[in-house]
Amino acid sequence: MTEQAIDKVKLANWIRGLVAHEIDRAKKEIMAEIKAAKTPRPRKPRADGFEDVWKLLQRGGRDEAEKAYIKAVQNGATKEQLMASIQAHHKFEWNGRSKDKIPHLSTFLNRGYYKTNVTLKPVKIAPVVPTCKCGRILNSGERQSGICLACEYKAKLENERTGQ
Ligand SMILES: [Zn+2]
Predict the structure, then answer these.
(1) Average pLDDT over every residue of 63-73
(2) CA distance 2 to 91
(3) How much is the pTM?
(4) Distance, CA 118 to ligand 1 centroid (Å)?
């Protein structure tokens, strides 16, 4: 081999080594990236007090709920107020409801449901239906006398009969 040829071989080997080294480095970088992508990022610390509120109403997305919580607190709500309201809603408003009819925490906060004092909501009472002693429902004209026309007529006939 000429000296020139030897130099060429040396150069080729050097380049080969360099390329191999670069490939190896790139592989390592890729592997590190894959590993980083797989490793869950550490959870952001939750807004102060959010966990306690979330425990009481674990409905909907947690992150969304937290955003709404931060907003509600910025608007003057306190953790204690929110917790008390959720508990009251569970006790009154949502009592007996199927779970899917209970709002997501984010909705509860964003729509300001916590501002409603549910304990003061009037209890639904079935309207009193005015009825006659015979059981017939009185119409508006009969309500004053308290008896239905049929009973009134019967009574009138009875009076007439006994009066005679
Ligand atoms: Zn009657």
Answers:
(1) 95
(2) 96
(3) 0.48
(4) 41
